[in-house]
Write a structure and sequence with these properties.
Elements (H helix, E strand, L loop, with lengths): L4 H19 L5 H31 L3 H8 L2 H31 L5 H10 L1 H4 L2 H11 L6 H10 L10 H29 L3 H9 L5 H28 L3 H6 L11 H11 L3 H9 L2 H17 L5
């Protein structure tokens, strides 16, 4: 079988074409400087993003881990907690942020000062805020129960010793901590609406609720949906709220997937089972990321 000169030289031509495509329009020293700036970023990405993800997938790849995990009653209650944590925490937080963004649209220096105070919970360190809330909710000498007894002579409940009260307290704490950030984002979206549109709506009689329903909401709907998707992804990986407010108690009944993974990996000294607990959230995480990327790629976020 004969081989032509064209067939022999084709791989070399393809290699030269590939090298040219990498270089682009860069020549000489420009290409060297480009490599000097790009290689460190690639190394950091591989070391701190790609390698941990691949290693985690490898650690949680055994089927027996998921059999053990799914048979655990603590994991079953954790899935319920995670669904409630996402459904209530994200939707209540974003709805209140939408309403408060309209409140902070009012002019005046006092409104700016109030906004500054309002964002303090988000600005302060997570540990100090949540540890303070944990002690405020103490059933025996906590500030909240003492306040109830002083003002109304009511014996407050044991906030952290009953599953649903503890989980509700953690959800409320999450909303308190994260709502200011999303309020500011939605406030920026409202402020980006051209003043001419709002003035025209007032002339046409669209004020108050009508203006919000027919003017403001349609213009920031894409922004609101994008923020909701991002908030869901962030909340799914939220570890600090449950850890510092309830510690997963009472009796491991308020864990979410993020804290259960830490508990299995460190408290039970079973890293593979901990990784499996976290990886079990991927069926929910992956569709959320895909939907978010499609929205960002196919539709411009309208302000």
């Amino acid at each position: 079988m004969s081989t032509s000169i064209v067939d022999v030289s084709r791989p070399a031509i393809q290699r030269r074409t590939f090298a040219r495509s990498l270089r682009g329009s860069l020549k000489g020293g420009e290409y060297t400087w480009a490599l000097a700036f790009v290689v460190p970023y690639i190394a950091v990405f591989v070391a701190f993003v790609a390698y941990p993800v691949v290693y985690g997938l490898w650690m949680g790849s055994e089927v027996s881990l998921y059999r053990e995990l799914f048979a655990d009653p603590i994991y079953q209650s954790t899935v319920v907690n995670t669904v409630l944590y996402l459904a209530l925490g994200v939707n209540i937080k974003m709805f209140l942020a939408l309403l408060l963004s309209g409140f902070f649209m009012r002019p005046g220096w006092w409104m700016q000062a109030l906004l500054l105070i309002y964002i303090l919970p988000w600005a302060v360190p997570l540990q100090s805020g949540f540890i303070s809330i944990h002690w405020m909710l103490n059933g025996e000498w906590g500030f909240l129960n003492n306040l109830l007894y002083t003002l109304f002579h009511i014996e407050g409940p044991s906030w952290l010793n009953e599953r649903w009260l503890a989980l509700g307290s953690a959800i409320a704490s999450h909303i308190w901590k994260q709502m200011p950030f999303w309020t500011v984002i939605l406030l920026a979206g409202r402020m980006a609406i051209p003043l001419e549109i709002r003035e025209t709506a007032k002339v046409d009689g669209a004020t108050g609720l009508r203006s919000f329903v027919h003017i403001t909401l349609p213009l920031i709907a894409n922004l609101y949906l994008t923020c909701t998707l991002l908030s869901t992804i962030f909340t799914l990986g939220d570890f600090g709220t449950i850890y510092f407010i309830t510690g997963g108690g009472p009796a491991n009944l308020t864990h979410v997937l993020a804290t259960l993974g830490i508990r299995n990996a460190f408290d039970l000294a079973n890293p593979q089972l901990g990784v499996a607990a976290v990886m079990s959230a991927l069926p929910l995480m992956i569709p959320l990321v895909i939907v978010l990327m499609r929205r960002l790629r196919t539709a411009e976020v309208q302000l």
